[in-house]
Amino acid sequence: MAIIGNIIKGVIEARDALSKETSPVEEQKKVLKELLDKAKDTQFGKQYKFAAILDSDNIQKAFSEAIPYHDYNKITEEWWNKTIEGQPDITWPGSPDFFALSSGTTGKKPKRIPVTKDMLDSITRAGRHQVFAMSNFDMPADFFEKEIMMLGSSTNLQERDGKKEGEISGISASNIPFWFKKYYKPGDEIAKIDDWDERVLSIAKNAKNWDIGALSGIPSWMELMLKKVIDYHNVGNIHEIWPNLQAYTSGGVAFDPYEKSFNALLNHPIQIIDTYLASEGFFACQNRPETSAMKLITDNGIYFEFVPFEPEYVNQDGSLADDAPSITLDEVEEDVDYVLIISTVSGAWRYIIGDTIAFADVERAEIKITGRTKFFLNTVGSQLSVNKLNDAVKHLEEELNIKIPEYTLCAKRFDDGFYHSWYLGSDKSMDKEKTATILDNYLKDANKNYKVARSKALKGVKVNFVPQQMFSDWNGANKKKGGQVKMERVMGEDRFKEWEDFVSQQS
């Protein structure tokens, strides 16, 4: 009998039963006040008169009118460079002990994002929020006694000017609570291995020594790790190694494109739970099984605003027009794309994280990630967000009985005009013209702007198949394997030329 598991499950269920209904809107108002009050004596707080904002009749409105939008370049040039140099009290009280390195999906030079103690506490609380939400998923008691494989970047953080830096998953894993260490795998020693391939090989060698009940990490790298374990032990699926595996916490990107290829590695379906963790914070997690949408965590040191994702508000490079209007949580509508804006306990203020989201349930504050501001395919008026592209690929998988976990495309200019040029990652090659027709017809039916574009400047669709391994090799050549690294779904023409050159060299 799972005695400890029953105790843990009982505590979780009791907490859930005793918890009061809360208002996300009111929680957000409280968070904003707390952020402004704590940072009012920083250099940023003094320049933008946080004290006066706190005295205003409508704090949310006064805040949005006083503070400009910031992307990473703007806030770093004007403020965070001072923090990086070691100056205290710039955008948040004190100095951060950590910096999260993030190359995003396009950047070659890593960003250095402050990670304060308050942010680490926020991430820990969000993790507890996720654990307590498990009461809604009806997991058996023995699940709570199993080990958790957290596949992130290396926890061997680098020292620089007295601070530690690494990817956020490595920073978080290096700061896990002591009581969690008995459940945490691959464990401190393996997690510190810098080389991704060496780390995964070590996981494979030790896999049979662990009783893994849950996985956590970005889908693309999780799949590669599971394949390595399966191949190393020459078994048919991962449940032959970890028979008690029952859940996977996905994060960083939408899980939908990976669903078919991921399930092929299992003996039976497991519970998939989506989360939204970025270098700038832990924003949302799925807290009920009826939906894959994620609930914004609205009481945890992060204040959210939303800018309607309209062409007149978003510049070609993904930045926002200075006069782009923002709205608060009480004003959002369902099924509308918004650019997500955050203000946080790490001293990010009205920060454009670069993601677009849509609300699946306004009352519950549940969202889905719909794409990236830079990756919105609109070169010739097609207005395709990444979630629409994901839907098209999922449809293609069903039509062709094929697995396509990775893809990228570009609105590329050919001699006779623009085409959407797709590269599909699959170890099973199909008829390219038939595939292009299926994609084209699906998108015409699913998106009226695409259909209009196809009658004008957009001439058609071109398709190429490449091995799945090509995408991880590309990421490895351009950045670093594992961790928070994600594949660009949409590329500009210059970047796409680099990709095509890489593919031709590897072929």
UniProtKB/TrEMBL annotation:
Species of origin reads Allomuricauda ruestringensis (strain DSM 13258 / CIP 107369 / LMG 19739 / B1) (Muricauda ruestringensis)
Q: PANTHER family attached here?
A: GH3 DOMAIN-CONTAINING PROTEIN (PTHR31901:SF9)
**Name of protein:** GH3 auxin-responsive promoter
Q: Where is the GH3 middle domain?
A: 297-362
* GO cellular component terms, A-Z: cytoplasm
Q: Which InterPro entries match?
A: GH3 (IPR004993), GH3_C (IPR055378), GH3_M (IPR055377)
UniProt domain GH3 C-terminal: residue ranges: 389-492
Q: Which GO terms describe its molecular function?
A: acid-amino acid ligase activity
- Pfam families annotated for this entry? GH3, GH3_C, GH3_M
